[in-house]
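#struct-help
A.M.: can someone run this one for me? Single chain, 313 residues.
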Amino acid sequence: MTNLMSNLLRIGTRGSKLALWQANFVKQSLQKIFPELLVYLKIIKTSGDNFQDRSLSSIGGKGLFVKEIEEAMLNGQVDIAVHSMKDVPVTIPRGLEIPTFLSREDPRDVLLSNGKVEFENLARSSVLGTGSLRRQVQIKKLRDDLELKPIRGNVDTRIKKLISGQYDALVLASAGIKRLGLKGEITQYFSTTDIIPSAGQGIIGIECRENDIEIKEMISNINDSNSMFCIGAERNFVAKMGGDCSLPLGCYCEIKDKNKIQISGFVASVDGKDFIKDNISGSIEDNIKLSSQLAERIISNGGKEIIGSFDSN
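D.P.: on it. Structure tokens below:
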């Protein structure tokens, strides 16, 4: 059942500044098209928000940021959920789907540092904060003389820890920084070649119940087809590489021109010593086929052993 008979749409969202920005952006985008629509934001605290003192990989992975919101949707408490797609596991609960994706924000990772010191000029043994295995193994390949220290918390919390001197630098997603109006805090952008983004990084997705046809039709008005092609390729790559396990893994699909894409991907051991990276290009309509081929190439070139060693730990 939907609430659209009464022109009411209930959005489930986390309570962080970034999550609320994203939910309000969806709200405003829909109300521009449907001025009579009443939109209510229901803040839901997730397991990922509750356990800030441990790494995500140790407590069950990034799916902990969406679990309770998806349960609220299945229980009929909310009608849609707004997610950062990099936080959404490739397997979602039966009865739900993600049919709509907004235009992609900058997918790159960025450096924030005290004194605006660029990455190449950070002193040896500088403390660099990141909670992501994906980032850690790629940073080590660029510079193995830095001390990588885990960090959790929302963007504001992390920046406060940087300013207080607990860290010399941080690596974060550009998209979140820009959406919060903090672009001026960025010291440097990493290319998507130097640090391959997380699948879906920079893309906002809207999840709903499969049988809510009216809602699906409504949110389709703000869907971005380029984002849909890219997210399809990236999430398929992750699925082919082993799904939702917390592997150091990244994938980025870039539209090169109107009909061509390039997909880059990698997998690494947790210590970063084993690292396999590759890319593939072709027609945008072949996004799923190409991402499957890329995963198969990486798996056959040593990725299978990396994934197997991780599963046995």
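A.M.: thanks! The chain is about 35% helix and 25% strand.
D.P.: also worth noting: The first strand starts at residue 8 and ends at 13.
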